[in-house]
Amino acid sequence: MLSETVKDTTFEFVDKYVPQWLDKDTKEPLVIYVSGPQGSGKTYTSARLYEHLVRKYGDSKSIAYMSLDDFYLTHEDQLKFNQQFKNNKLLQGRGLPGTHDMPLLNKILQNVAQGTGEENDSEYLHVPRYDKSKFNGEGDRSERVMKCKVPVDICILEGWFLGFTPLLSTEDEEPLLTGDMVDINAKLFMYSDLMWNNPEINSLGIVFATDHISNVYKWRTDQEHETIRIHGNGMTDEQVVKFVDRYMPCYKLYYNNFVHSEKLGSVATLTMGIDIDRNLYYTKTRCIE
Predict the structure, then answer these.
(1) Cα separation of 141 and 203, whole Å?
(2) 152 and 125 in contact (C-beta within 8 Å)?
C-alpha cells in the first residue's frame, strides 16, 4: 500500500496549482501527467487524484482520467507489430514505446485540446479502456469506454515512461544506443513530441522517484501476489522477473536523467522520492512560471 503521505503531498500540490490555473479563466485544458515506475503507486495515486478533483470541481468542471496503457494496440495489431519487429525482443508484446495506437492517442489529445467530442456523440469524449486479461493475458482493447463531458477542463494522464527524453544521434549519446534500444529510442520521439515536449499543452507533472530502480522487481512481485490473492491467478515470481527485465533497458537509459530534469510539467513539477516500502523520503517542486 502506498504511503498516505504520498497521496496527501500530491493533493497539496494540485490544490495549489489547479486553482491558479482555473483563476486565469482560460478555455485551455490543464493536463496532469503522472509518471513513475511499475508498482510505484502512480495508478493508485492517479485514481485517488481523479476522485479528489471530481469532489472539488465536478459540479462545474469536466475531469478526464486516462492511462497510457489504455492506448495499447489491439491484440490483432500487436500480433502484426510483433511480426514487423520480430528481431526486437523488447517489442514482442505490449508495454514499451511503439506498442500504442498513436493515431488514437493523438485524436483523443486533440479532442481534449480543442474541446470537441466524438463524431457521433458531440457532447462527450470517449476515452478507451484496455483489458489486460484478454487472450490469456496478452490483452486487447475493451469494449468499454469512459465518457467525459466536453470541453474537458482537467485531464489526468498516467504512464511509466511519460517524460523520458529520447537520445539524439550525437557523438556523445549515440554509443549509448545499441541493439533493440535503437528502435525504442526512435519511437519515443513520437510520444515526446505529442505530449510532454508539446509546447501547446499546459501541464502539471507528478513524478515518482525511486532510490533504486531495481525496487520495481519487488513492487511488481507484490502486485502479482495481490492479483493472485484476489483473482486466483497471475504471474509466477519468475515470470514477473522476465516481465520487468524487458523494461530495464529503458529505465537504465532514461530514468535518472528524467527524474533530475524536474520538467515533466510545463507549469510546475512535483518530484517525490520513495523508498522500497513506498515511503516518502523527499519532495521537490519546480515551478516554471
Answers:
(1) 27
(2) yes
Q: Which fold has domain 4-272?
A: Rossmann fold (3.40.50)
Q: What is the dihedral of CA 193, 196, 197, 202, to 10 degrees?
A: 120
Cell 533497458, residue located:
249
Residue 39 zone, left/alpha/beta (φ > 0; ψ -120 to 50; rest): left
State how far the Cα of 212 lies from the Cα of 20, in Å rounded to an integer. 34
H-state helical runs in the chain: 4-22, 42-57, 75-84, 102-114, 181-194, 215-231, 237-245, 248-250, 256-261
143-198, pLDDT tens digit by residue?
A: 999 999 999 999 999 999 999 999 986 555 556 677 899 999 999 999 999 999 99
Residue-range domain boundaries for the chain? 4-272
Block residue for cell numbers 505490449:
94
What does the alpha-carbon distance between residue 261 and residue 284 come to, in Å, rounded to a whole number?
A: 12
* Nearest alpha-carbon partner for 215 in 69, 41, 37: 37
**Per-residue CA distances from 273 to 74, 182, 211, 241, 251 (Å):** 35, 30, 7, 23, 16
Q: Whats the size of the chain, residue-wise?
A: 289
Element (H, E) at 205: strand 202-210
Residue 202 has pLDDT above 90, yes or no: yes
* Residue in this structure with the C-alpha cell 510539467, named with its chain if needed: 265
* Strand (E) or helix (H) holding 284: strand 280-287
Using alpha carbons, list the distances in angstroms from residue 178 to 62, 169, 244, 257.
Answer: 44, 12, 19, 18
Three-class DSSP category at 282: strand
